[in-house]
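Problem: given the chain below (109 residues), write out its structure.
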Amino acid sequence: MRESDLLTAIRLEAPKYGCTLMRNNVGCLKDITGRTVKFGLAVGSSDLIGWTICNGAAVFTAVEVKMRGKKPTAQQQAFLDAVNKAGGIACVAYSINDLKDAIAGWYGD
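Solution.
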């Protein structure tokens, strides 16, 4: 399985857990005039961004998708830490179970 396959699988399974996630590509490229165009939320922002319905409210959710054995960059980890510190749900996901665990952890389970 490739990381893109895992990302798609997590995005499609997430609604079963009250979670809506959208792809967040981050980077830059040159347009036809040669100008640099930046895209994505921010350097280090997660692969999947969205919300999880918790107790009737939408809780910001960020998921950094990685294959087993890979770790997030320092910038990616800083983004995840900031989301968690602010009261959101954020995790590195090697499988859908990691997202399920992060949601359960938000509830204190």
